[in-house]
């Protein structure tokens, strides 16, 4: 009996003893490497437990139980509107990230009133010089339009199929918040090119904020960076559009979908 | 205790036979130590209330499950692979394809650079904010008070903001006002009518936002903005109410065929 300690859990030795193909060896090596560091085996066990606890038989829906298919088959496509708004959101996110490579949020460079600013020029650069840039802006803009349209229609579907009723009130209110944020997403994006309509749309926004008693001036400072429009407004709208809103909206969408997952889809019956 | 000391066939007692094998494997809890359920019951205040409520809701769940007449289907469900995946891929590619097609067909207009010195004749946001812009153009409805010499009570912009609050508040309140298990418009003509009123109102408000495009007076347009939605709502109510009888008869017939009334 040797005094040398043997490692009973020498996985690499165990690996060598076995007659494995290249793919199997590579897979096991990677698995062992990751498992030594993150101990994924624990999480796998958790997953396994959850898998076997899950009810493997689905309850029959009212539709199936009472043979009602022919009564509202025409509702079915409308049940995809929520996913369609998420798909449009993803398309807008990808194209927006690529536009962000070229866009600069700055009002510098205008010698006189009405001259193009750096922000405006960077959009012109995207339109004229960037390879595929014209199409990219078009896709980003249309993805936003599609998302808003899908979100509105999704709300109508939920309303007219009574899917908001108890116990789904919280998700309905979350959806109303998400619609508001989507609209604000669109508004902040509309301001970024700093063209004539962007400026005057932002002007209406500031005036609305200032007309609100008590919190109005504070809101104008926070969102528009002051009472008159300028560099501060553009940078705030930019940060809201590319940093704050993406995080907030993405997590709220995840919560929204998570609640649907937990509560199940409300079928008309 | 008397049972334990019964005489056994070998002449001894049960007590002796049991102690012969050594001490018991587990130490019996002494009387002072509370069990886990006792510990939970002994807790006070909010913790106790929470515990009691969870007990109730778990019992409710159990009762519902035992009383349930749910029928289970033979199949396990629509398989995630490949059926669901292929379907989702098809829907996604179709949708993104249409999006790219329209983006190529109708690229958005790009206007002149911002000029704080000259206000454009027509200021408009994107189409999805027209309804909101229409709410800001409700100035003629702003109440005028005789006490204030006919002056308006609120700033016009603030009236618009209040209108937004009312719209969002009303939408948020819907699930708290309309309860019950009815799902279809035909089952609840009133709420379907409310929905149609809201949809048409958003369209007429959008029309109000682009009022310059309408060849008739502003008064008439504002009247129509509120009259048309109500009219559409009334028509919806009438139509659904008429449909309802035959429709519900059919629905109930199917329902009672499968679940005859006791």
UniProtKB/TrEMBL annotation, chain A:
Q: Which of UniProt's keywords are assigned here?
A: Membrane, Transmembrane, Transmembrane helix
Among the GO molecular function terms of this UniProt record, one is:
oxidoreductase activity
Q: Which PANTHER family match?
A: CYTOCHROME B (PTHR19271)
GO process annotations (BP): respiratory electron transport chain
Q: Which residues form the Cytochrome b/b6 N-terminal region profile domain?
A: 30-269
InterPro entries (alphabetical): Cyt_b/b6_N, Cytb/b6-like_sf, Di-haem_cyt_TM
State what protein this is by name.
Cytochrome B6
Query: Which is one Gene Ontology cellular component term of this protein?
Result: membrane
Please list every transmembrane segment annotated in the UniProt record, as residue ranges: 78-103, 142-160, 172-192, 204-226, 238-262
Keyword rRNA-binding listed? The answer is no
TrEMBL record, chain B:
According to UniProt, the name of this protein is Cytochrome B
Q: What is its main location?
A: membrane
PROSITE patterns recorded: CYTB_CTER
Q: Which SUPFAM superfamilies match?
A: a domain/subunit of cytochrome bc1 complex (Ubiquinol-cytochrome c reductase)
Q: Does the keyword Iron apply?
A: yes
Question: What Pfam families does its record include?
Answer: Cytochrom_B_C
Molecular functions (GO terms) = electron transfer activity; metal ion binding; oxidoreductase activity
Q: Where is this region: Disordered?
A: 1-44
Listed GO CC annotations: membrane
Q: Where in the cell is it found?
A: Membrane
Q: State the membrane topology.
A: Multi-pass membrane protein
The superkingdom listed in its UniProt entry is Archaea
Which organism does this record belong to? Answer: Halorubrum halodurans
UniProt keywords, alphabetically = Electron transport, Heme, Iron, Membrane, Metal-binding, Transmembrane, Transmembrane helix, Transport
Q: Where is the Cytochrome b/b6 C-terminal region profile domain?
A: 70-211
Q: Where are the transmembrane segments?
A: 89-110, 158-178, 190-214, 220-240
């Amino acid at each position: 009996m040797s005094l040398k300690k043997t490692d009973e859990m020498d996985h690499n030795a165990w690996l060598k003893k076995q007659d494995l193909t290249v793919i199997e060896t590579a897979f096991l090596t990677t698995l062992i490497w990751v498992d030594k560091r993150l101990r994924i085996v624990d999480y796998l066990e958790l997953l396994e437990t959850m898998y076997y606890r899950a009810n493997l038989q689905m309850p029959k829906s009212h539709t199936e139980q009472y043979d009602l298919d022919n009564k509202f088959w025409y509702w079915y496509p409308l049940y995809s509107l929520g996913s369609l708004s998420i798909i449009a959101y993803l398309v807008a996110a990808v194209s927006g990230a690529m536009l962000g490579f070229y866009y600069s949020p700055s009002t510098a460079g205008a010698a006189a009133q009405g001259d193009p600013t750096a922000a405006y020029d960077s959009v012109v650069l995207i339109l004229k010089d960037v390879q595929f840039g014209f199409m990219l802006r078009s896709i980003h803009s249309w993805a936003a339009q599609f998302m808003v349209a899908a979100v509105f229609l999704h709300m109508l579907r939920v309303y007219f199929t009574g899917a908001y009723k108890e116990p789904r009130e919280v998700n309905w209110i979350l959806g109303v918040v998400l619609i508001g944020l989507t609209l604000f997403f669109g508004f902040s994006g509309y301001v970024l090119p700093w063209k004539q309509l962007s400026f005057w749309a932002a002007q209406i926004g500031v005036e609305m904020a200032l007309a609100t008693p008590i919190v109005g001036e504070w809101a104008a400072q926070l969102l528009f960076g002051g009472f008159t429009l300028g560099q501060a407004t553009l940078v705030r709208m930019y940060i809201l559009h590319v940093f704050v809103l993406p995080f907030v909206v993405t997590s709220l969408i995840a919560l929204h979908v998570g609640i649907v997952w937990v509560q199940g889809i409300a079928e008309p019956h | 205790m008397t049972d334990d000391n019964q005489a056994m066939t070998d002449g001894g007692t049960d007590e002796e036979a049991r102690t012969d094998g050594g001490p018991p494997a587990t130490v019996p809890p002494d009387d002072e130590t509370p069990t886990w359920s006792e510990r939970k019951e002994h807790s006070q205040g909010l913790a106790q209330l929470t515990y009691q409520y969870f007990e109730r809701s778990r019992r409710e769940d159990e009762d519902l499950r035992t009383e349930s007449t749910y029928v289970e289907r033979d199949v396990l469900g629509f398989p995630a692979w490949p059926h669901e995946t292929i379907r989702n891929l098809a829907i996604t590619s179709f949708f993104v394809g249409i999006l790219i097609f329209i983006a190529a067909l109708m690229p958005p207009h790009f206007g002149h650079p911002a000029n704080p010195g000259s206000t454009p004749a027509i200021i408009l946001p994107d189409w999805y904010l027209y309804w909101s812009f229409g709410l800001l153009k409700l100035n003629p409805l702003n109440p005028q008070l005789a006490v204030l010499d006919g002056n308006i009570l609120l700033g016009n912009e603030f009236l618009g903001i209040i209108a937004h609050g009312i719209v969002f508040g009303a939408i948020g309140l819907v699930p708290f006002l309309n309860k019950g298990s009815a799902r279809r418009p035909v089952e609840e003509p009133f709420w379907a009518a409310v929905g149609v009123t809201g949809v048409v109102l958003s369209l007429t408000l959008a029309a109000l936002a682009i009022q310059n495009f309408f060849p008739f007076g502003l008064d008439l347009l504002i009247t129509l903005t509120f009259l048309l939605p109500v009219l559409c709502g009334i028509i919806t109510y009438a139509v659904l109410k008429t449909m309802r009888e035959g429709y519900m008869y059919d629905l109930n017939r199917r329902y009672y065929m499968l679940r005859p009334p006791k």
